[in-house]
Amino acid sequence: MQAAVTDVTAAIYDGIAKRIGQQKFRVWFRNSTSLSVSDGYLKIGVPNLFIAGWIENHFLADIAQAAADASGQSLKITFNIDPELAGAARPSATVSHSNSSPALTRRDTDAGLSGTTGSGRQKIAAINGYDKMTLGNFVVGPSNQLAYNAASAMINQEDNPFNPLFFHGGYGLGKTHLLQGICCAMRKSRPGSKLLYCSAEEFTNQYLFALKTKKLDAFRGRFRQLELLAIDDIHFLANKPSTQEEFLYTFNSIDLAGKKVVLASDAHPKMINQLCERLVSRFVSGMVVKIEPPDFETRCRILCQRVAVLGHDISDKVISCIAEQVRTNVRELEGALLKLIAYASLNNEKPSIAMARDILAEHIARTDPIVHVSDIESAVTTFFGITPADIHSSRKDRTISLARSFSMYLARRYTKMSFPEIGRLMGNKNHATVILAARKIEELVKSNATVNWKGPGGNKVAHARTILNSLQKTIA
After folding, report:
1. CATH topology for the 373-475 domain
2. Which of 8, 102, 175, 180 is close enough to 130 for a disulfide, judged by CB 3.0 to 4.6 Å?
3. Residue closest to 299 by CA, chosen among 106, 142, 170
4. Phi, psi at residue 444, to the nearest 5°?
5. What CATH number was assigned to the domain covering residues 296-367?
6. Span 95-106, pLDDT tens digits
């Protein structure tokens, strides 16, 4: 901890220590962080991405409350790498050389560390920074074999076998890995080719900026002359008719030139609500591949690969123990492994089955509860007549906002996930969004307010408690 801290930062440190306990404070904060408060922000300096991810994933609510108590206001929390802290960090934290810290798995390769508690996704990216996500290190199993084969065919065949290639599946199953892997392979096999990977959100932002600045020709020239366009989270285009039309023209231009488009979404094209029929038709005219959660054997091989990359020695029995208990997705699997490695390293012990069962108990309970977020989303989307992609989108019409709020409230109530974890699972939303959503539903239920929304059959009206009871019966 820096010697010359302000009274406010000292009070924040004290508040954190009281809330999480002296042992955890000593391990994760005392010599591994620096704090500064300015302009409504609490800036947390950390030595590396791993510690940033761990702190955000486990202590963000405690930090926010301690900061509010000490400063008298709600501070926005950001993380930044502080080189002066690198030497002070315990050697065990150097596992951050991987790009899959628990809280930053998807974002650290996209946008660096800046604003890690925000909900923004990446900038448009050249493909030079994606060598860590290649087809070569993508672990293949029954759940993703077809997706991998399709990705390989797109790379190896000059003539486009299908356009577009459309991956869909749940959170953390490897869609982004495949998109970036295709880009990496294309870059290596065809040096100098024009490639672009970005999110649908960034495509939208760039298009709107081009409209505002009257630079549509430059925007279109940039996107329509590509040899490969990879778009992540394509469901973000839902309910954006002008952007959908622009993307359709972009897609047609690339396709007519015999070039390639690869897309990823949380949902099948036909399940993305308010996506124009022409786009749906174009998407399903190519190859649509669903990626399922990995089976036990694949989970073991994923863990073995991560252990090898991190340079640690973990027995097959411990690997099997983790794989048996963490079944949701690849990111949670890797997060559980990192938690075990961190604990073992900090205590100078070798990971064992007993340690895995003990230390990962909280993690497993949080990530693999009796009620899954997917169960909650299924119940809520069926009730309100929308799709999971709608909940994950940034759309804010009344029906989707209401459904999203109920989903977040139920996830908080029926799982042990933190606010940031729920936010990431539901479309990379800010933890503050989850907090506000939960409070909103609590207030509606407490007053049993009348709720209005628009369902598939027209306008609907019901009391908040009636809605909640119906949803609880479905997921219980």
Report:
1. Chromosomal Replication Initiator Protein Dnaa; Chain: A; (1.10.1750)
2. 180
3. 142
4. -65, -45
5. 1.10.8.60
6. 222 333 333 233
